Amino acid sequence: VESDLVQRAARGDQEAFGALAAQQVDRCYALAVRILRDPHRAQDATQQALLGAWRDLPNLRDPERFDAWLRRLVVNACYVESRGHRRFVARLQVLSFEPPIAPDVARSVAARDELERAFRELSPEQRAVVVLHHHLGYPLTEIAETLGIPDGTARSRLHYAVRQLRTVLDAAPGSVATSQERSV
Amino acid sequence: MNRLNDPLFDSRIADWLEDDANRAPGHMLDTILAAVPSISQRRHLPTPWRFNPMPNSLRLAAAAVVGVIALGVIYMNLPGRDDVGGPQPTTFTSALFGYTVDLQGSWTVTPATERWPAGSRLEPDQADADWFRLDGSAAAIAAQDIPEGTTAAGWLARWEQIREDIGGHCFGSATPWTATMVGDFEARRIVWECDNPENAQSNWTEYVFPVSDMGFVISGTPSLVETLAASFRTP
Lengths: 184, 235
Known about the structure:
The complex is a heterodimer. Chain A is mainly alpha-helical. In chain A, 72% of the residues lie in helices and 0% in strands. Chain A has helices at 3-10, 14-36, 39-56, 66-86, 103-120, 124-135, 140-147, 151-171, 179-182. In chain B, strands 3, 4, 5, 6, 7, 8, 9 and 10 form an eight-stranded antiparallel sheet that branches. By secondary structure, chain B is α+β, with helices and mostly antiparallel strands. Chain B has helices at residues 7-18, 26-35, 56-76, 152-164, 222-231, and strands spanning 90-93, 100-103, 108-110, 130-134, 137-145, 170-173, 178-182, 185-196, 199-211, 214-220. In chain B, β9 and β10 form a beta hairpin.
């Protein structure tokens, strides 16, 4: 992101902010949808984050930190979205009317469903660290800096998230964790 | 191999995450940009917490305290008083927690109406803390009993542990915990970095310190907290 655009947007230049938002909207949405697992809430979180960025840009002290700052706004918006909806989340079981499929494909689909289910059991804070680390590839120190949490907290969130994922997946029939992995 | 450091498992998570959408729906950007002109930019640092509307009972209590403070200020400025210099601070003595702090005339105070349960967190606007406000900023002082059998150091360590996952609108520490003093009492101090969709950047400061069998916390907007901590005293 060009810091010139950030500075102009911070001074109230809507055109500059439009260019910034166009650069960032896909990235913000991709992060939000992975954390929230829901396209509609991801849209809401992305909008909240980008509009929050517009509103608060004058308070951003270092334009070079815009990317990390916006990432944090997205994660925070995901927390808000997640907490706002938590009590209304229903556990729905989808009935499948799909025609029979090959066993390998079925196993793969089942494994992904298990992963999805296990991931949804994680807290939003844990999901954020998993996505930032395993999808975006950020090291834990950078995640800690981005989220404004101590390194140890980022490490423990990832540790417990992965442990929880493995526990759920190990317990599932047709587990995604293969027998070869279990013996390691 | 450590099961939690399993490249196969890690790559499976990464592959699974990779399948999610990478592009925002086309209309999103238009929606966002259409909303921008109606949103004013903020050029100040707001308070770190979102304040909920006060219950009526607290409003009454706050109004009563404001009235008392106002009378105090008027009294202090009556003709004939031989004050010199600027406005004199009034004092606030907490009925529930027993400490005293100095206040400037324009501060408002909402005294606690309930005891602060041991082991619980300090949450915005809760009724078990004394709340101090000035120009949209806020700070709280509260104290809880240190459980029997728990040392002062143990209580402090427990508090730091509770605060590790600070949550709410604050997402981590801007400084480590450091040893300091509040009045005559050994204390620990930290600055939290707060950031939420409503606030771009706003820190707040927190002191924790045991006083005999009570564990005190002063937390809130840094300038208010420092002022309160500087005049904190117990009988």
